[in-house]
């Protein structure tokens, strides 16, 4: 089974999620649906709904709207943080379009992010299951902690792999893990299954962010839908750079430090950093780390009863690293 | 009974709220407790916890922490919106201190606001009562809608009283009404009592914001704890200005329009606006409108059984308009 099959397996539900997203950002306050629609049309892979829907079916839930509603919740929380991220990063492009802070201003991005956040909790309230509220609100809190950690680690070249992994675990893996767990809760899975799915999501989420951070270095703007080498520009210290700093000589380190601490004339610097990354096989290292997370993630669910939905989760796990890297490196030297 | 007695009546619980606020913004992510503490020390009147605690006692709840925990929730939501407001307004002073966006940057203000918001929902999850989640999440959504309305009405001199009241009802009254309702829910009050307390809070909340908006014109920085005439500078069209525009002659209107649409050299303009407000008795008009809301608010709870807590709610209602205006106008001509 490949990723496209995973999507096809819950195609109807994913379409229902799109419709529910549109319905739920309706408001009599005109600016809100306008910005939300803009965000929503930007698309994105809907990886969180895909995992949630698949997990709920794996656990035997087939008839009902709960996974669709909770998919809206996680997607709204994710969108809210993207909006706020763009304000924090002063981004100009997101998913191939002008980012909303540029189009409507920082004020609107902050407030519409808040709106999506509060709306998501209203949807949880309507779902009426405290275990869902518990996992989603815990994931949200950890996600924000991850964002704050990212801010405090900015331009700090002393950031360790361990600190980076801790940040990623909160910023990205928490909500993905919680999406998987929510599917299990809705499917009334036994506790071991629920926690296995949570841990699977956690590992997949780690791999997902590692590849995101790698693609920021090795991909081009038209493929990313956002400016490449953005992390270097913004001073986000991610795994490729951490690895490079660990391997580089003193002189090289000094040069990298200079590039990271400045936020101007970065493009010359980026080329130098990419050369050094090739020299020290940083891309291979990052991919291997991501693969480790995927392997661990698969192990977490390996003991579950065989089913087409389990196969689907394996296919999604492979997609997260292999397919994304492949599509990016097609025709390239690696 | 006067306002100080109202505070005294739940003094122990208010102290417990302060302690719980401090406890709940603890995080292993260093920046979070730092900013939260800074915010928390800024104080504020804790009017929402005061109302929630009083309402819960009125409804017979005396032993237990639930009103204290839910007071943290509403206070965190309120603080989160203050943080985000400061980013939206590019504020420099809040509660007599440098606002957090100046001290830590917009990024940190956005993220710590998000943190408080997500933490508040985690506290609701721990409280484990879906009726509380429903009222709080509905209030949050309406609050943000109010903020968005405020943004879209900015510098629009065609804003009507009706539009302004609608904005205030969402931005301020919703969370105050919900605080009163939450107290009633915790106290397991009958439905009529619960909805009477909600409507009382709604009216009091309206009056509260009207006086806030009036004080912005007639008070001085040292009394407000933030710059006076800020709304004029930021282009927020509030009741005093709406009333003035309704009464002013064509020539005066044109001048006011010029002042509102510019965001520079506002201080000369402010003096002119204040003169016109005196000419057209705008202060008296605004106070009278606020008093109407207070009268309606008192009517909503007039049928409840007499008790010291009911007296307290009446005293709080009086404080919201009379005491705040009085303390501000002491020694002034009005």
What does this structure look like?
By secondary structure, chain A is mainly α. Chain A has one domain (3-330): Farnesyl Diphosphate Synthase, CATH 1.10.600.10. The first copy, chain A, has 17 helices and two strands. Chain A has helices spanning 3-9, 11-24, 31-41, 47-58, 66-89, 100-104, 106-127, 130-152, 161-186, 191-218, 221-224, 230-234, 239-247, 250-261, 266-279, 282-301, 308-329; strands at 93-94, 97-98. In chain A, strands 1-2 form a two-stranded antiparallel ribbon. The first copy, chain A, is globular, with a radius of gyration of 20 Å.
C-alpha-based Rg of chain A, rounded: 20 Å
Structural class given helices, strands, pairing of chain A?
A: mainly alpha
Beta strands of chain A, count? 2
Q: Based on the structure, what is the oligomeric state of the protein chains?
A: homodimer
Helix content of chain A: over 70%
**With helices defined by DSSP (H or I, 4 residues minimum), what is the helix count of chain A?**
17
The helix/strand order of chain A is HHHHHEEHHHHHHHHHHHH
CATH superfamily of chain A: Farnesyl Diphosphate Synthase
Major sheet of chain A: size, sense and barrel closure? 2 strands, antiparallel
CATH level-1 class of chain A: Mainly Alpha
Biggest interface between protein chains, with counts per chain?
A: A-B, 43 and 43 residues
**Strand-residue fraction of chain A?**
under 5%
How many domains of chain A? The number is 1
Overall pLDDT of chain A, averaged? 89
Secondary structure layout:
Two copies of one chain form a homodimer.
Chain A: H1 3-9, H2 11-24, H3 31-41, H4 47-58, H5 66-89, E1 93-94, E2 97-98, H6 100-104, H7 106-127, H8 130-152, H9 161-186, H10 191-218, H11 221-224, H12 230-234, H13 239-247, H14 250-261, H15 266-279, H16 282-301, H17 308-329
Antiparallel strand pairs in A: 1-2
Helix pairs in contact in A: 1-17, 2-5, 3-7, 4-5, 4-9, 4-17, 5-7, 5-8, 5-9, 8-9, 9-10, 10-16, 10-17, 13-16, 14-15, 16-17
């Amino acid at each position: 089974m490949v990723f496209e099959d995973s999507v096809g397996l819950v195609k109807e539900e994913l379409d229902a999620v799109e419709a529910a997203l549109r319905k739920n950002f309706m408001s009599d306050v005109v600016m809100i649906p306008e910005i939300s629609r803009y965000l929503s049309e930007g698309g994105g892979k809907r990886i969180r709904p895909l995992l949630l829907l698949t997990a709920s079916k794996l656990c035997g839930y087939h008839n009902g709207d709960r996974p669709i509603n909770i998919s809206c919740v996680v997607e709204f929380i994710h969108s809210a943080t993207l909006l706020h991220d763009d304000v924090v990063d002063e981004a100009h492009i997101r998913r191939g379009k002008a980012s909303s802070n540029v189009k409507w201003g920082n004020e609107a991005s902050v407030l519409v992010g808040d709106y999506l956040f509060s709306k998501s909790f209203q949807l949880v309230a309507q779902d009426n299951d405290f275990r869902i509220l518990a996992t989603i609100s815990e994931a949200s809190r950890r996600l924000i902690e991850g964002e704050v950690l990212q801010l405090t680690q900015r331009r700090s070249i002393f950031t360790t792999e361990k600190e980076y992994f801790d940040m990623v675990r909160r910023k990205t893996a928490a909500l993905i893990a919680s999406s998987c767990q929510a599917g299990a809760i809705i499917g009334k899975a036994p506790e071991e299954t629920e926690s296995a799915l949570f841990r699977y999501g956690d590992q997949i989420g780690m791999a997902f962010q590692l590849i995101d951070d790698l693609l920021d270095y090795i991909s081009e703007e038209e493929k990313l839908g956002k400016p490449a080498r953005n992390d270097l520009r913004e001073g986000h210290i991610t795994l490729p750079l951490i690895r490079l700093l660990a391997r580089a000589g003193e002189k090289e380190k000094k040069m990298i430090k200079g590039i990271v601490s400045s936020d101007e004339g970065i493009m010359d610097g980026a080329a130098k950093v990419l050369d050094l990354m090739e020299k020290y096989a940083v891309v291979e290292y990052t991919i291997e780390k991501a693969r480790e997370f995927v392997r661990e993630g698969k192990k977490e669910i390996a003991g579950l009863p065989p089913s087409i939905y389990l196969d689907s989760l394996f296919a999604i796990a492979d997609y997260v690293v292999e397919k994304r890297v492949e599509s990016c490196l097609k025709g390239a030297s690696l």
